[in-house]
Amino acid sequence: MGITLSDEEQAALAGALGPGVRKAMEIVVGLGRIYRARRLLPVGSVQVAGVSYRNLGEAGLDFLRQWADQSARVRVPTTLNPAGVDLRLWRELGFSESFARHQEAVIEAYRRLGVRTTCTCTPYMVGNVPRLGEHVAWAESSAVSYANSVLGARTNREGGPSALAAAITGRVAAYGLHLDENRRATLRVSVRCAVRTLSDFGALGYLVGRSARNRVPYFVGLEGACSEVALRALGAAMAASGAVALYHVGGVTPEAGQPDILAPDHEDLVVDDLGPAYEALNRDAGGDGVDLVWLGCPHAGTDEITEVVRLLAGRRVRSALWITTARETRAEAEASGLVSAIGASGGRVLADMCVVVAPMQELGFHTLATPSAKGATYVPSHAGLRVRYGTVEQCVEAAVTGFWSG
Ligand code: F3S
Fold first, then answer.
1. Which residue has its alpha carbon closest to ligand 1 atom 1?
2. Is 297 a pocket residue for ligand 1 (Cβ < 6 Å)?
3. 84 lines ligand 1 (CB under 6 A)
4. C-alpha–C-alpha distance, residues 297 and 374, integer Å
5. What is the mean pLDDT of residues 118-123?
6. Residues facing 137 on adjacent strands
7. For residue 296, which atom of ligand 1 is closest to its CA?
8. 45 close to 76: Cβ distance less than 8 angstroms
9. pLDDT of 248-270, one tens digit each?
10. Ligand 1 within 6 A of 356 CB?
11. Which residue in 130, 159, 144, 374 sits closest to 246, CA to CA?
């Protein structure tokens, strides 16, 4: 049986709302046919990825401009993933004017499409907060994981064009994680070691993601240990190492208590040692020198920035220290004096950007330290830097001394 469309959806597919909407509806319906969806669903919000000019290039920018020229506009609240540079501070950081201008052109194309142009991978911290059970279309693996798992919203891991098509049509095809039957846990993970720090949660996520192979994990043994920031780290790590888009934590996440949440044919995994994750993520570190410390992957909240200020205790940093966050969060941190406290130590609070999609080769760094397992997974291949992975405390000490102490 094929996909059934409403009269309104059929008209949009036939071009009644213009060529831009028709193109978007063709993408949504095309995906629905590939995944054997029976109908479309209205979406409450969209998170679009594919923002850095480094990834899009001229072809991607042209694609966005053409869509905007066809009068396509988003129909639901739509937010953007991080860009390649801080749109305000790129010059001070040393990024090239050429890249920054192209990046601004990308943002302008999204603005013409009606997208809110704050660029963050934590849109749920700046007002795009889906409700429990709400269907959304999000791209950005860590945000998808958070929306599905912690908020209990429903989204597949969209690509850039498919998310934008969902925003322009207000629809997504009903398949994958939009359906009850695909949200049951298929891998029970018994955690039998201490998981305390942010980097421990990232290490756990890294290990489980590598074993998950498209299964939905259900964690046992984390009750009472999970803050929101810990869940962000856990989900982001699993998304990076194993494309996990949904997980449940017994006693913590909203769908974990549902009857039959654990599929009868689930498999079991025991994690009793996080050491292998720390070893794997530090494997290519090279020497002990660190010239860039990166926190805020996923983008930091003011609580995380406050913690860095506390750990710095007024000391000057020898290496570069970057904390990436959303524009709105930086404004909040500016108002409360956190940005100037970080600045007084020689660090920076950066908005709208992510190191992984930045043109880092323009800056000449060699070794980056981070407490983010997702960052540590992607930085060597995407940013071309060596990586040190450890606790927030270790990273702040590395910023102060310029050296890693394990
Ligand atoms: Fe966000 Fe970039 Fe990390 S998109 S989750 S800061 S790799």
1. 298
2. yes
3. no
4. 7
5. 97
6. 46
7. 6
8. yes
9. 999 999 999 999 999 999 999 99
10. yes
11. 144
pTM of the shown model: 0.96
Give dist(CA 210, CA 244) in Å, integer.
Answer: 9
Cα distance between residue 225 and residue 305, in whole Å: 21
Q: Which residues contact 377 (CB under 8 A, 6 or more apart)?
A: 206, 237, 240, 241, 281
Burial of 268 (0-12, 13-18, 19+ CB in 10 A): exposed
Dihedral of CA atoms 54, 209, 177, 155 in degrees, nearest 10, equals: -40
Task: Render pLDDT for 333-384 as a digit per residue (tens, 0 to 9).
Answer: 999 999 999 999 999 999 999 999 999 999 999 999 999 999 999 999 999 9
Measured CA to CA, the distance from residue 311 to residue 326 in angstroms comes to 22
49 lines ligand 1 (CB under 6 A): no
Q: What is the CA radius of gyration of the chain?
A: 21
> Angle at which helices 160-169 and 19-34 pack, to 10 degrees?
120
Closest ligand 1 atom to residue 355 Cα is 2
Regarding the beta carbon of 143 and ligand 1, being less than 6 Å apart is answered: no
